[in-house]
Amino acid sequence: MQALPVRVPSGSTYWTVLDDELRVVAEADAFLRELRFGRSRAVETTKSYAGGIVLYLRWCRDTRREWRTAARDLGLFMLWLKWNPGGDESVRVVVPGPGSKQVRRESRINKVLTSVRGFLVHAVISKKAPAWVMELLYELGDDRDLPAQARGESEGMRYRLRARHRLQEPETAVDRASDQEIVAMFGACRSARDRLIVLLLGRAGLRRGQAAGLRRSDMHLLMDSRALGCAVEGAHVHVVRRENPNRAYSKSRKAFVLPVDFLVVQALDLYMMERHDVLGSGGSDFLLVNLFRQPLGSPVTPEACRSEADRQACDGAASTHP
């Protein structure tokens, strides 16, 4: 079992699931296509869901269960997720000894269960799995136990679903780099482009997919941008959800604006001079492009943004990684 990206003729990409004989698992593929194109979810979302479905189908195969009805044993699946070594197809029997460290944490297991529930619900709706599977996945409740303020204005009883299988996640502090660590990462950068990436992620608050998807036309750095047809005051960045060839994707369905300060503006000025020295007036409309490796001028991928930030975190001795 494995997950694999698929590029359709329109240029869009989604992830699907292959069985042991490298054949597409039709039910999983239909669910992931609906997720990507029917619900307009991000490519990375289908990748995450495909990975969870692969684990579920692998468990069903190893324990000789029928995936359509294995929801009755999801508790055992959660135990398998907790202790089964990840990515090791040769391990078919899980025998953790005393003091063993669990393989997957609670948050990861809950994400896998979310993908499995979505997959099985889609199978029930499409008549590929029996309807009683829904009762094994969710508890059905109504609004009679809610206070009057939470019931809404509509008349009649309203129902809600609650997932039966879910682990309690421990509360953890947000693992954010401190200002000192960001300064250390900034000092470890070897180019103006890398310094701009650090500031876009650490100071402007962009996600790596959003940063890699920025176009030069998204950067409005004047105090008054009305000449560009933009009524937003001050220096700012427009974050727009697009289908990009470098697989960069903003998870926010709505376009939004982020203000940037003088540090980002100065870093962008230095980067544009560095870019012009290498590419001249050429290159794509993407803001962040390759300047030091082939193909020159091609857009930087989100994975490259993370790799650069990880390297700078190591060079700057930062304890956190983006």
UniProtKB/TrEMBL annotation:
Q: What is the lineage of its organism?
A: Bacteria, Bacillati, Actinomycetota, Actinomycetes, Kitasatosporales
Q: Which UniProt keywords apply?
A: DNA recombination
Q: Which GO terms describe its biological process?
A: DNA integration; DNA recombination
Residues annotated as region Disordered?
A: 301-322
Residue ranges constituting the Tyr recombinase domain according to the UniProt record:
172-322
Protein name in UniProt: Tyr recombinase domain-containing protein
Q: Answer yes or no on keyword Transmembrane helix.
A: no
Q: Which GO terms describe its molecular function?
A: DNA binding
Looking up InterPro entries in the UniProt record yields: DNA_brk_join_enz, Integrase-like_cat_sf, Integrase_catalytic
Presence of the UniProt keyword Acetylation in the record: no
Parts of the chain that traverse the membrane: none
